[in-house]
Recover the amino acids of this structure.
């Protein structure tokens, strides 16, 4: 085929080039042999001291030696003529190679990038060996190609000037290849360049990871402004104005109770707004928000000025829960772990639900990084079969979690004797809890036992999720995956169909929807439930 003929032609060209190099080397070596065999003081032809045919100490060069010199000079002349002719031959080959390359603009761009890599390798090699003319030519060609690439548009045709620059670079690379034919030298140079590139990639990855951590842990400027404004205005209110009106007229047991533990005002607002929007009977909804003492005034002020009508809301601070351990707010700090998702006291408050809500028997706990898209009242109708927790399993959801052994240390006897390493992990973020059964089975006591055991020796990875797997082991009923789709905070491959059919979507991961580093295609699901014309958001320059 045409491809095979092209390969054979190229191979033949390389063989001719190699043969010419051998001629040059042979000619040079023969010339050295002649010089080494000349007697001392002998002259070479042309009037140079030691030239053949001249007297130096009265000795003449033999006819045989003169013949050897002539043969050498003939070989050099032939080689020089062939090399001169090869300039045109190489130009033709370069044109042919360029014309044979794929016609697409993108392919030409890749070709130029490959040329740059080779040229820079030859440049470093030539600089070390003092080939000044080749160095200048390589630098010129590199600048030309870089200039072409910088003005390149993948949607436009390849200009003639660009093709000329590609051809010129091919010619220069051919010269460099003839000047430095030893593959071992170029291999070493390219290996060094590869190593340097890998080190740069590692450094950039490290820097990216660090900056991502900073972005995750840093509250956006607008959110900080919002919290400050809300807090200052809350303390300007009359004490009587700091309370929510008692609006619910039915018994607590007739309401759908949703708990949200959060220190983020806007995130909580989105959960509340989306739940009401999706509900078939929002007047039967009651929200229970628990936050920390620092964010309590801002959370109160937001919902006082933006009441979740027709639903009802209660907001508490951790400081109001006097029965909590005295060190509860800081007992979860761990050396070397700075991610607030793993050290937050609010994340661990989920293990005290019956104590936080002593008058409730069933409720849904929502994380503050979720959006509710369907009516959730059906969760209260699910038979939990005498178990405590209803949750979606993540073994097949593709959100990065798999089996229990990925979170828990199964080398410890207290773990391996009580748990199945292959057990599927259950998600947090949207859970239905039977608090009556929880109290009966003493689940909070089990939590405290495991928490103290982990303080003596490391039994699981950081955060509340691994511990929750042990606390609710054999206490969880798997829910249909359509109730809860996870991973919008890290997985860019989740399909639109899976997202839009889900009752709850969860931005689990670092890329939260209120951060600039969030995944763009998922932002609108969250943004839809914030009114960006709100005066507070306008004043703090918070936009979509």
């Amino acid at each position: 085929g045409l491809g095979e003929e092209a390969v054979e032609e190229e191979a033949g060209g390389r063989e001719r080039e190699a043969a010419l190099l051998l001629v040059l080397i042979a000619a040079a070596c023969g010339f050295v042999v002649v010089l080494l065999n000349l007697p001392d003081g002998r002259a070479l032809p042309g009037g140079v001291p030691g030239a053949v045919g001249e007297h130096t100490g009265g000795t003449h060069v033999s006819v045989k030696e003169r013949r050897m010199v002539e043969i050498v000079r003939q070989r050099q002349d032939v080689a020089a003529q062939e090399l001169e002719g090869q300039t045109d031959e190489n130009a033709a080959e370069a044109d042919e190679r360029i014309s044979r390359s794929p016609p697409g603009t993108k392919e030409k761009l890749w070709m130029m990038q490959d040329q740059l890599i080779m040229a820079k390798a030859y440049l470093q090699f030539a600089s070390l060996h003092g080939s000044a003319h080749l160095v200048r030519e390589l630098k010129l060609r590199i600048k030309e190609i870089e200039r072409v690439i910088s003005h390149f548009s993948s949607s436009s045709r390849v200009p003639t000037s660009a093709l000329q620059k590609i051809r010129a670079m091919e010619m220069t690379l051919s010269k460099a290849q003839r000047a430095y034919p030893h593959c071992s030298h170029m291999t070493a140079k390219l290996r060094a360049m590869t190593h340097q590139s890998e080190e740069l990639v590692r450094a950039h990855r490290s820097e990216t990871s660090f900056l991502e951590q900073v972005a995750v842990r840093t509250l956006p400027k607008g959110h900080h402004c919002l919290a400050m404004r809300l807090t200052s205005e809350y303390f300007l209110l009359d004490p009587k104005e700091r309370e929510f009106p008692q609006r619910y007229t039915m018994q607590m047991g007739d309401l759908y109770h949703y708990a949200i533990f959060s220190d983020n005002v806007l995130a909580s607002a989105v959960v509340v707004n989306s739940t009401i929007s999706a509900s078939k009977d929002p007047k039967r909804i009651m929200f229970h928000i628990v936050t920390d003492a620092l964010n309590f005034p801002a959370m109160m002020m937001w919902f006082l000025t933006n009441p979740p009508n027709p639903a009802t809301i209660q907001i508490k601070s951790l400081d109001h829960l006097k029965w909590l351990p005295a060190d509860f707010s800081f007992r979860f700090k761990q050396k070397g772990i700075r991610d607030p998702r793993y050290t937050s006291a609010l994340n661990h408050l989920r293990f005290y639900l019956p104590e936080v809500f002593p008058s409730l028997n069933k409720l849904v706990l929502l994380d503050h990084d979720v959006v509710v898209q369907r009516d959730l009242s059906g969760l209260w109708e699910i038979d939990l079969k005498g178990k405590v927790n209803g949750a979606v399993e993540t073994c097949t959801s593709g959100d990065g979690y798999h089996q229990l052994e990925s979170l828990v240390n199964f080398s410890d006897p207290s773990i391996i004797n009580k748990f199945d390493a292959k057990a599927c992990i259950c998600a947090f973020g949207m859970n239905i809890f039977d608090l009556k059964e929880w109290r009966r089975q003493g689940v909070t006591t089990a939590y405290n036992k495991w928490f103290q055991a982990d303080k003596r020796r490391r039994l699981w990875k950081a955060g509340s999720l691994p511990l929750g797997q042990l606390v609710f082991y054999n206490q969880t009923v798997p829910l249909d995956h359509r109730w809860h789709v996870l991973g919008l905070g890290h997985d860019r491959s989740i399909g639109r169909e899976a997202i839009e059919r889900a009752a709850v979507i969860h931005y689990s991961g670092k890329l939260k929807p209120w951060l600039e580093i969030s995944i763009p295609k998922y932002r609108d699901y969250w943004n839809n439930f914030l009114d960006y014309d709100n005066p507070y958001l306008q004043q703090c320059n918070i936009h979509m």
